UniProtKB/TrEMBL annotation:
It comes from the Bacteria. The chain crosses the membrane at residues 447-466. Residues 1-21 form the signal peptide. It comes from Bizionia saleffrena. Keywords: Membrane, Signal, Transmembrane, Transmembrane helix. Pfam families: BatD (PF13584). This is Protein BatD.
Length: 590
């Protein structure tokens, strides 16, 4: 009987030990029904340590926090208690019925899994009460604001957008990331670099806040009417104080996540007034200076000088064309070389743009460089202004006289001279006819006879040479491919010039011209063409890095132009730059 009693106690202890040693791995959620604007907490807990934890995919949720891992290990009355938890904070993507699928873990060689949990997501609730959601933050503690310098600008007038994040003094932001970025459609835009975030004190709606400037951008509206600036949205990690304190009495902080948006802004763009608009107005808006200068005012024939047409000041410098310089036809004038020195600040573009003409006189004389005008819209006076250059004279001191064989012709631009006539002026005109009849039948000894006889014989060597040259040219595979592709590049450049004003057609033709030219010059196969490959080959041909950068920039412009608004001025500048770059590579390539 006593033995039976001992056996019973032993079996009871063994069964109790077995019960306490059973593995528990389960999933718990903070709620099974929540609004689409609420947050869900999911805990995966186990009573023994394991390896290779694999969470579910959470395909219908955004993970805004976690996994956070916590471990507790204690001994109470000689009994060990162990608990390990993986926690996730989720945000539902939309309304509907979803499932938290199984999670798995390996414990002592065995794989355990949790049960599937059904979750119902309803429409947004007015006041979520989940303590783990960002809505527990006091109202008005965080604001993302887009400050626009002017909401009713003129066409091509610079405005600025500054994005500021205002945070109340009892709240902190430890991290942020952009969810939606504004694209600034229908604006020419440039972001202003911010070097480090600087925390400043300020006021928002009369209340004290701390704020940081997250982004700055300068915008030039490219069309009139009502335009919209898309919102900037951020996901923030926010530190808020709790009622708990650490062992030193300091208040503990809790981290939650919140999405904030600056909201869209509406800009009403005014057209430039028609009253007083000059006929030659090219779209310049701002405050400018204008001048035309020459590098020399006296030189010899066949020497060169540079004539510069320059606009400097503050305004939309990259968005209009300079007036053309008209010179006498007797001067040899090359296409102008465009250059710019422009900095973009928060107040807009500042700097200068220049067209430099190379001029080569051929004859002795004095040549006028006529006055030309530049007009722009002045934002301060809201009126049009015109600046005219001074007329200049280029004196060609030494060189041939135009029409030297005839004293009645002088160089264009030279002072008018009186025409002098003499009695022999028309001596070459015969006033009496002296006709002589000449008849001959001796064809066999005539020039025509011997020419007809010997010409075919003399033509045989030329025909042989021509045929050999033709065969050599036909066998020159590389040369033929080079010439053919070069013709294609010129043809596409011509197509691009014809398509100026049509953004899609222009940039397609320009991109084809650039590709065909480079493939021809560097002997690149179609399937091997890439920016990296072309850059490597150009560097191997000792082409300047600045020219290679210009070529890459043009290719990028062709790609980006399909998705961004482009002005006619920008298209013209890209065409001129492409022609210059191709010409420069031709000269530098070795």
């Amino acid at each position: 009987m006593k033995l039976f009693k001992h056996i019973t106690v032993l079996l009871f202890l063994l069964s109790t030990s077995f019960v306490f040693s059973q593995v528990e791995f389960e999933a718990r959620v903070s709620k099974k029904k929540l609004g689409v604007n609420e947050r869900l907490r999911v805990d995966f807990s186990m009573n023994q340590n394991g390896d290779n934890f694999s969470p579910p995919s959470f395909a219908d949720f955004d993970i805004i926090g976690g996994p956070n891992q916590s471990v507790s290990n204690s001994w109470i009355n000689g009994k060990r208690t162990f608990k390990k938890t993986y926690s996730y904070f989720l945000s539902p993507k939309k309304q509907g019925n979803y499932k938290i699928e199984q999670a798995t873990i390996e414990i002592e060689g065995e794989t355990y899994s949790t049960s599937v949990i059904a979750i119902a997501v309803t429409s947004a609730v007015s006041r979520p009460n989940d303590p783990n959601t960002a809505q527990t933050i006091p109202e008005g503690s965080i604001h993302l604001v887009a400050e626009v310098s002017k909401t009713t600008p003129y066409l091509n007038e610079a405005i600025t957008v500054v994005y500021k994040l205002y945070v109340s003094t009892n709240t902190g932001v430890s991290n942020w990331r952009e969810i939606n970025s504004p694209k600034f459609n229908d604006f020419w835009s440039q972001n202003i670099e911010i070097k480090g975030l600087k925390i400043e004190n300020g006021k928002y709606k009369g209340e004290d806040y701390r704020y940081v400037i997250l982004r700055k951008a300068v915008l030039y509206p490219q069309k009139t009417g009502t335009l919209e600036i898309e919102p900037l949205s951020l996901n923030l990690t926010i530190d808020i104080p709790t009622n708990r304190r650490d062992i030193f009495g300091g208040r503990l902080m809790s981290q939650v996540h919140k999405t904030v948006s600056a909201g869209s802004r509406t800009i009403k763009v005014k057209p430039l007034p028609e009253t007083g608009k000059p006929l030659d107005f090219g779209g310049a808006v701002g405050e400018f200076n204008f001048n035309v200068t020459t590098s020399k005012d006296a030189l010899n024939a066949n020497e060169s000088l540079q004539a510069k047409v320059a606009v400097s000041g503050k305004g939309n410098l990259k968005l209009f064309q300079l007036p053309k310089l008209n010179l006498p036809s007797s001067l040899e004038v090359y296409e102008p070389e465009y250059s710019e020195k422009i900095n973009t600040y928060l107040s807009g573009m500042q700097g200068s743009i220049t067209d430099t003409y190379t001029v080569v006189p051929q004859y002795k004389g004095k040549y006028p460089i006529p006055s030309i005008s530049f007009s722009y819209f002045d934002l301060k006076t809201e009126s049009y202004k015109r600046i005219s250059s001074n007329e200049a004279i280029v004196n060609v001191i030494e060189g041939p006289v135009y029409g030297a064989s005839d004293n009645n012709i002088v160089a264009e631009g030279a002072p008018n001279q009186r025409s002098i006539l003499n009695n022999d002026e028309f001596v070459f005109v015969k006033t009496e006819a002296q006709l002589v009849s000449k008849e001959t039948n001796d064809f066999f000894n005539s020039t025509g006879f011997w020419t007809g006889l010997l010409a075919p014989l003399l033509a045989i060597p030329f025909a042989i040479v021509f045929r050999r040259k033709k065969e050599e040219r036909a066998n020159d595979v590389v040369g033929n491919r080079l010439r053919k592709a070069d013709k294609l590049a010129k043809r596409y450049l011509s197509d691009a010039k014809k398509a100026l004003g049509d953004k899609e057609a222009f940039y397609v033709a320009l991109e084809k011209a650039l590709h065909n030219y480079l493939k021809a010059r560097l002997n690149i196969e179609n399937n091997a063409f890439s920016k990296e490959k072309s850059k490597e080959l150009l560097e191997g041909k000792q082409v300047d890095s600045a020219v290679i950068l210009d070529f890459d920039t043009l290719l990028e412009n062709c790609e980006l132009a399909r998705y961004t608004p482009i002005t006619n001025v920008a298209m013209q500048q890209d065409y001129d730059k492409a022609a210059r770059t191709i010409h420069t590579i031709d000269k530098q390539i070795k």
